[in-house]
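Case 199 in the screening queue. Each case pairs one protein sequence with one candidate compound; here the compound is D-altro-hept-2-ulose 7-phosphate. For every case the pipeline is the same: read the inputs, emit a complex structure as tokens, and attach any notable structural observations.

Predict complex for case 199.
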Amino acid sequence: MLEQRIEQQFIDSADLKYQAAHILSKPIAAAVQAILTSVTSGGKVLACGNGGSAADAQHFAAEFVGRYERERPELGAIALTTDSSILTAIANDYDFNVIFSKQVRALGGAGDVLLAISTSGNSANVLAAIEAAHEREMTVVALTGRGGGKMTQALRETDVHICVPHERTARIQEVHLLVLHCICDGVDTQLLGDQEPSV
Ligand SMILES: O=C(CO)[C@@H](O)[C@H](O)[C@H](O)[C@H](O)COP(=O)(O)O
Ligand SMILES: [Zn+2]
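Case 199 output:
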């Protein structure tokens, strides 16, 4: 029955979040430190991903540049998924696999962070963006699932890997959004202290 199926999805999503809380708190804290180090030294976050993860990249950039829950100075973040002219020109003239990596090479510099989001860890354009970020001496914060796929091998020891322990894209994405909000909250707390949010 449809209602039972819906209820089961809420339960599965909540269960995964309970399990992931302990496993992911350490890498999420490491991501907060990496991003904080970057943005407090004049750096920025470049965020990319496909489909639902493209939406996550944009969601994160909005909360960084605008605000999350509290007023604070603007923080630098750019979603590499939003400029239709850049995306169509690169995909049309080169290849879809380089839509993010060319932007990373154009916009990224040493000390910036690449936020690379892929539930499978296997999207070729995100993998190419990681390679470009390493060329630019950027740190990578990777959000994945399903064991991390090819991204596990592509990351360096100085990068941060937040891998959701699940196989299903939708459930992984639901945890990714929570992870992104934890990163925003962690950065705000490090910058402003831990008083209650105003919104
Ligand atoms: O949101 C969803 C499924 O929930 C889809 O749009 C999904 O993001 C797309 O199929 C992506 O292309 C999947 O890419 P990835 O997460 O494996 O890197
Ligand atoms: Zn989705």
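Case 199 observations:
- The radius of gyration is 17 Å.
- The longest strand covers residues 139-145.
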